[in-house]
Amino acid sequence: MYLVFLKERWAGTSDEAELKDYAWYEDNSERMAHPVGQKNPNGLGIHDMCGNVWEWVFDNYDEQYYESGHKDNPNGPLTGFYRVLRGGSWINTPMDVRTAVRGRRIPMDWLQHEGFRLVLSHKTKHNKE
């Protein structure tokens, strides 16, 4: 399932006609953010990875990083003035909410179409029987 996810243009689909079922963007958002989970999840079961609000990520931004950096799960450069934003938002076109698109912003700035996702690692106990 993970490999299929990597080949999608948007998180959940590669068909622009289906995008409205997976993301809030300029054509269907009524120019505002929406509560999480109202659209279909992607192939990994995660909601709102494209559209709704740009998500701040930990990576520093470097326009040339993908040309010289790690190819598998790149973390971005160690330092930088800008941080990366991913996923596009409710004000963006379908092309701007694609999974491959990165934005950049100064960390001290904030706009109403930007946010972040809280992540909690889940540890499981393995029963030994």
UniProtKB/TrEMBL annotation:
Sulfatase-modifying factor enzyme-like domain segment(s): 20-119
Record InterPro entries: CTDL_fold, Sulfatase_Mod_Factor_Kinase, SUMF_dom, SUMF_sf
Name this polypeptide is given: Sulphatase-modifying factor protein
Domain of life (superkingdom): Bacteria
PANTHER family, A to Z: FORMYLGLYCINE-GENERATING ENZYME, SULFATASE MODIFYING FACTOR 1, 2
Pfam families reported in the protein's UniProt record: FGE-sulfatase
GO molecular function list: formylglycine-generating oxidase activity
